[in-house]
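Summary of Year 1 activities. Much of the first year was spent building the evaluation harness for sequence design. The harness presents a backbone, in tokenized form, and records the residue chosen at every position. We chose the following record to illustrate the format because it has been used consistently in internal testing since the harness was completed.
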């Protein structure tokens, strides 16, 4: 191992040990399952904001977005991040406060539990279906994070992909299993800071190595459609691909996914005081807009670096390793720069781990809290239930490792499918549960089922037909779920008087 690799590895080891230390540090604060899954509702506004967005962005921020921009230009990534920025703001504005109030009033600590209690589903059918969807979509989502970790170490040190992926997964499992939600939220806050530092260092260094902004954008402008908002660049044919309004809407539709993301919604539920959500919203929105814009710029910068010969040509899924390659290049300038490169690569790990820990918690809560105790009615004392929760987390992680076994998996593609699944099955239901008093359990049930199933149908059967049908599956599935929910609720008599009174009581809370 040379000095550069040692410097990088040292920085990463310090980072990983720090994350595990936090898990040990907060372990004793988990006295109940509510503490383990929701942190006792005691998060401050800054931790709430930054942990929510760090868990939201995942490896997609530092690998997926730059890779997409590198290959196709600003339009694909640009319209997507515009939709995400708007979705982020609206989620904080219209969902966060009311969800926080509603779940506290009902004593719900998970999203599936909220659905059942909101609609007075005494048999907990809604809880079961929602928990199943969380498991179905979160396990591959978690696997995408493991893939990103494996790619990082394989491309950097040449180590075996599978060994690197498993070790990374173990670190995530250890601190999450020990510290639960508090560990996940605290580490996510720290990880958001590391991600920010990584983005800034990479873009500044990359601009210098590529010859400055003028040369970078001159290179981008020479590629057909690369800097266009109505066209994208085809790297295979070196021609521009025209956009239409439907394509733009399809890309921007990513923003709809926010309303149904359990790991983000849990942050709203966990804040110490709903009045602090205003501060959280401002912090979160500003960070998301700036970080995603910088990620797109990094993709453009990386392409210019390839043009001037300081970076290899990145093909297909390899484009997602652009930041890794830039960091490795930085490390060749000496030991101090290698340490800085290690911080950058820790940022990639941070983006991955901050999402994977939250997803593991949400998926394990679905098994232990929602299925075993909620639906089947199994009774355990708090200590035993905590242990069951931790075992469920480990089992889910093992399945995720199995799904991540293929090193050629695209982070962007996996995240895209899981994002659509949650957005379509939960998004319309969350909005209607919070803002329409006539919604009932039958509308909720069939809306949730139709949205989730349509994601599969559209992605695997309809989308391959091409043309107008190639739009992002989230959009048609979200619309269908919304319509089904409303129509079925009306046809089955709407909500009961007790539900309406409960709705009005929450609506009147400040």
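For this record, the design step produced the sequence shown next.
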């Amino acid at each position: 191992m040379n000095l550069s690799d040692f410097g990088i590895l040292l920085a990463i080891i310090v980072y990983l040990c720090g994350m595990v230390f936090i898990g040990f540090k907060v372990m004793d604060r988990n006295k109940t399952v509510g503490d383990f899954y929701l942190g006792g509702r005691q998060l401050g506004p800054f931790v709430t904001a930054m942990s929510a967005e760090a868990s939201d962005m995942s490896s997609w921020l530092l690998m997926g977005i730059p890779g997409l921009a590198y290959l196709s230009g600003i339009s694909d990534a640009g319209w997507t991040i515009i939709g995400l920025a708007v979705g982020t703001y609206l989620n904080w504005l219209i969902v966060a406060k009311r969800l926080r109030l509603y779940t506290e009033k009902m004593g719900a600590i998970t999203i599936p539990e909220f659905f059942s209690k909101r609609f007075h589903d005494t048999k907990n059918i809604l809880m079961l279906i929602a928990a199943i969807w969380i498991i179905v979509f979160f396990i591959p989502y978690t696997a995408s994070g493991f893939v990103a970790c494996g790619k990082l170490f394989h491309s950097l040190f040449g180590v075996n992909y599978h060994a690197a992926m498993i070790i990374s997964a173990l670190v995530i499992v250890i601190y999450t299993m020990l510290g639960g939600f508090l560990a996940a939220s605290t580490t996510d806050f720290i990880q958001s800071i590391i991600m920010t530092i990584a983005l800034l260092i990479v873009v500044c260094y990359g601009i210098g190595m590529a010859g400055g902004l003028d040369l970078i954008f001159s290179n981008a402008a020479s590629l057909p459609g690369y800097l266009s908002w109505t066209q994208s660049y085809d790297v295979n044919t070196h021609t521009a691909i025209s956009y239409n309004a439907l394509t733009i809407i399809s890309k921007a539709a990513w923003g709809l996914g926010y309303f149904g993301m359990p790991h983000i919604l849990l942050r709203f539920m966990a804040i110490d005081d709903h009045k602090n959500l205003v501060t959280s919203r401002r912090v979160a929105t500003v960070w998301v807009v700036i970080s995603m814009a910088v990620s797109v710029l990094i993709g453009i910068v990386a392409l210019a670096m390839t043009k001037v010969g300081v970076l290899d040509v990145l093909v297909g899924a390899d484009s997602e390793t652009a930041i890794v390659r830039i960091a490795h290049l930085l490390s060749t300038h000496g030991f101090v720069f290698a340490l800085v490169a290690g911080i950058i690569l820790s940022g990639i790990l941070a983006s991955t781990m901050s999402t994977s820990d939250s997803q593991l918690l949400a998926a394990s809560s679905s098994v232990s809290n929602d299925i075993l105790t909620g639906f089947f009615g199994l009774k355990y004392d708090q200590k035993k239930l905590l242990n069951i929760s931790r075992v469920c987390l480990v089992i889910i992680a093992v399945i995720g490792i199995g799904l991540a076994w293929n090193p050629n998996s695209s982070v962007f593609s996996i995240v895209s499918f899981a994002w659509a699944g949650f957005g379509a099955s939960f998004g319309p239901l969350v909005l209607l549960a919070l803002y329409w008093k006539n919604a009932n359990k039958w509308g909720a049930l069939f809306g949730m089922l139709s949205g989730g199933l349509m994601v599969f149908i559209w992605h695997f059967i309809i989308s391959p037909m091409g043309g107008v049908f190639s739009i992002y599956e989230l959009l048609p599935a979200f619309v269908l779920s919304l319509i089904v929910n409303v129509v079925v609720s009306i046809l089955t008599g709407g909500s009961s008087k007790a539900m309406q009174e409960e709705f009005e009581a929450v609506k009147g809370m400040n």
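The longest helix spans residues 161-210. Quantitative recovery figures across the full test set are reported in Table 2.
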